[in-house]
Design brief:
iron, flat, transmembrane, 12 helices
Length: about 375
Amino acid sequence: MGLKPKPGSNRSIFEEVGTTEKAVAAPGAIDRGRVDARGAIRLWLKILFVLVAVIIAVGGMTRLTDSGLSITEWAPLSGAVPPLSDADWASEFEAYQQTTEYQQQNAGMSLAQFQYIYWWEWGHRQLGRIIGLVWAVGFIGFWATKRIPTGWVWPLFLVGALIGVQGAVGWWMVHSGLQGERLDVASYRLATHLGMAFAILGVLTWFILKLGRRQADILQARRAGEPGLFQAGTLLMGLAFVQILLGALVAGIDAGRAFPTWPLMGDGFLPPDPFVLSPVWRNFFEDAGLVQFIHRMMGYLLFAVGIAVWLRARRSANTGTRFAYNAVMAMLLIQMVLGIVTVLYSAPLQMAILHQFGAVVLWVLILQGRFLARYPKAQSVRGTIR
């Protein structure tokens, strides 16, 4: 005796089971609710990027005008206020007159001349304070309102940590020029300071690029990435960073003005007496001829590797990636020409700054190419980027 169905419960054998509509996740739902936060954070990082690029240029001017030792103390807070009276200026000038740089290089300098170099150094430090403040206000604001996307709290905190360390490295660099009989800051400390600035710029660039895509798109793009080209881009990035450090060593001892000839250094391929200083290791930091020679050789190596990476990138199936490395190759050529012209004209102020700005552009382009090799943009079968 079978069970009879209850009245009204009969169902057609053709009726689909579970016809009740269920909520389905809409495309892009993984990022919904924080799109605005990602856009705002990206804008904040772009502002920091511009400020860091500007401070690199101002730092270059500070070095080229020998302004770095004009402020003889590290006062992160009180130092934000410049001298406001004649007595304040007299006190600052008197402190500078106690330095070896003044006594052996700038003796007899007028107050007006001192004020010129003072404003360059003060402006450089003030920009550093502004960068720190912009980071702190942005980070605290996004964190307190819980608008930072999942997984981004520590990366964004890292940016602030690097900025803080950079401030300490800046004083560590300046302090070296205020000790003993030195006329300038230690070149290796200058290289460390500039290297940190480019590292911060690189981190900002990577984060800006990554936040420019939805998290779902990033995950999908990585599966379509080109590991070989990404590794080649990493090699190029590393060589470019070393070349930037070598450029700082050149600037630190004014080695760019030592041999205004090219392709030879004076009358030969090698500079004369490249290892005259003792102990030998000092020559790699303090001998103008040897430091400039190493910078030149690294430039040739960077250019050669850049050509190899560019040829590798030309085989990429992704239009955006190929275009990115075309830009890298073009900037490499421009930067090399700028370097040669800078040497031939004994590193005039304008050319030296332009060459440094070229390094910033090249650095960012290499990072962009490397990013696209790992996270290529989606494109149609016809090669049009979507």
